[in-house]
Design goal:
By secondary structure, the chain is α/β, with parallel strands linked by helices. Helices cover 40% and strands 23% of the residues. The chain has a single domain, classed as 3-Layer(aba) Sandwich (Rossmann fold). Bound molecules: adenosine-5'-diphosphate and magnesium ion.
């Protein structure tokens, strides 16, 4: 187990966003987190990454207790994420968006940066090489000088993932990476996620509404509803789980089970 969360509870005023959530990740797996809108999926990510401190519960990553640590410390321990709504520096180049993600952990101070010492120049060179590797991997190298805002939606989503990987994480949390993508972009993204897991030795947890994506690439699914985990299993098991079908039906127009069946 690389990550284990137990009993996570988080209230916002009167809303129980999380109500005793247990969740684990096996090292190297690609798991999916699904559930109707408002069921608490993004809040799980926000608690794991330190944006929110849980009211109750623990999160362990390897031997470290991480619940309540500041986001930058959790990031340094090896957890990175993308956001449901794309967060890029719109007016920076593709290359600089990824480059900016390196600097917090660069091992030299502002003085050597100003004086352009060898250490600084070596560091910059290494970063440049890593940025090139990431951009090439995500097929964004040709667009490296373009402003992020000029990329297609699918390219922006991939750029966000490239940037998340700049910190060299062990665990990658993807919050609806296929939102707004068309069919062929989703296909392409599935390939990238699978390849990235191998190439960068990642454990991945994916929140996604597009059932084609989660059912297609996830080995295990965790289903939430009203702040609780209501089911867990392989995609085949989840597809037939009556509680899951009920959860989706309960939030949807009668007869529409497309998100479960698809
Ligand atoms: P999901 O990602 O599954 O759609 P969220 O985790 O975003 O769900 O939200 C779960 C519930 O918690 C929702 O009712 C949402 O409105 C509420 N919530 C999430 N974040 C906040 C916040 N910062 N302040 C108030 N309510 C929040
Ligand atoms: Mg969400």
């Amino acid at each position: 187990m690389i990550l284990e969360a137990r009993g996570l509870t988080k209230n916002f005023g009167g809303i129980k966003a999380l109500n005793g959530v247990d969740l684990y990740l096996r090292r190297g797996e690609l798991a999916g987190l699904i559930g109707p809108n408002g069921s608490g999926k993004t809040t799980v990510f926000n608690v794991i990454t330190g944006i929110y401190r849980p009211d109750r519960g623990t999160v362990n990553m390897d031997a470290n207790r991480i619940a309540g640590l500041a986001p930058h410390r959790i990031s340094r321990l090896g957890i990175a994420r993308t956001f449901q709504n794309i967060r890029l520096f719109r007016n920076l180049s593709v290359m600089d968006n990824v480059r900016a993600a390196y600097h917090p952990s660069v091992p030299y101070g502002p003085v050597s940066a100003v004086c352009r010492t060898n250490r600084y120049l070596d560091g910059e060179k290494a970063i440049g090489e890593n940025v090139t590797e990431l951009l090439s991997f995500f097929s964004l190298q040709d667009r490296r000088l373009e402003h992020a805002k000029n990329l297609s939606y699918g390219d922006q989503r991939r750029l966000e993932i490239a940037r998340a990987l700049a910190s060299g994480p062990k665990i990658l949390l993807l919050d609806e990476p296929a939102a707004g993508m068309n069919h062929s972009e989703v296909e392409k993204l599935m390939g990238f996620i699978l390849e990235a897991r191998k190439r960068f030795s990642l454990t991945i947890l994916l929140i996604e509404h597009q059932m084609r994506l989660v059912m297609g690439i996830c080995e295990r699914l965790v289903v939430m509803d009203f702040g609780e985990v209501i089911a867990e299993g392989t995609p085949a098991e989840i597809r037939k789980d009556p509680r899951v079908i009920e959860a989706y039906l309960g939030h949807r127009p009668a007869g529409d089970t497309s998100e479960v069946r698809d």
